[in-house]
C-alpha cells in the first residue's frame, strides 16, 4: 500500500501544481478550493507512505512524479515549450524514480 499512497500523492501534487496556475493568485474561489484540497490530499498521502518507506526515497519519488507530470500537463494544457534537452532531463528523472523504487 505505501507505493499506492505515494503514487496517488504524486498525482495530487501534479493537480495542485497545475491548479496554482488556474487560481490566478488565489483570486478564483473554485480553482483555489480544489488546489488547496489537492495539496492536503497530496501531503496526507505522502505522510501515509512515509510510515513504511524511507523518507528520502518517498520524498524523491513524490517530487519526481509531480515534476514530470506537471511538465507534461504544462505542455499539453498550457502550451509550455518542449525541447529535446527537456525530454532528456525528464527521462533522467523517470530513471531516478524507477531506480529508487527498485532499490527500496
UniProtKB/TrEMBL annotation:
GO MF annotations, alphabetized: transmembrane transporter activity
Domain of life: Bacteria
Keyword Oxidoreductase included in the entry's annotation: no
Recorded topology in the membrane: Multi-pass membrane protein
A Pfam match: Multi_Drug_Res
Location (main, coarse): membrane
Residue ranges of coiled coil: none
UniProt subcellular location: Cell membrane
UniProt source species: Roseateles toxinivorans
Regions that span the bilayer: 33-50, 57-78, 84-103
GO cellular component, one term: plasma membrane
Stated name of the protein: Guanidinium exporter
UniProt cross-references to InterPro entries, sorted A to Z: EmrE-like, Small_drug/metabolite_transptr, Small_multidrug_res
GO term, biological process aspect, one: xenobiotic detoxification by transmembrane export across the plasma membrane
Keyword set, alphabetical order: Cell membrane, Membrane, Transmembrane, Transmembrane helix, Transport
Similarity comment text for this entry: Belongs to the drug/metabolite transporter (DMT) superfamily. Small multidrug resistance (SMR) (TC 2.A.7.1) family. Gdx/SugE subfamily.
Amino acid at each position: 500500500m505505501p507505493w499506492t499512497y505515494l503514487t496517488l500523492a504524486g498525482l495530487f501534487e501534479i493537480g495542485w501544481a497545475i491548479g496554482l496556475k488556474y487560481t490566478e493568485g488565489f483570486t478564483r474561489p473554485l480553482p483555489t478550493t480544489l488546489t488547496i484540497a489537492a495539496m492536503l490530499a497530496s501531503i496526507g498521502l505522502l505522510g501515509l507512505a512515509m510510515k513504511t518507506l524511507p523518507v528520502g526515497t518517498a520524498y524523491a519519488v513524490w517530487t519526481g512524479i509531480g515534476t514530470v507530470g506537471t511538465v507534461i500537463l504544462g505542455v499539453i494544457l498550457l502550451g509550455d515549450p518542449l525541447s529535446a534537452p527537456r525530454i532528456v532531463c525528464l527521462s533522467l528523472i523517470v530513471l531516478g524514480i524507477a531506480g529508487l523504487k527498485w532499490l527500496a
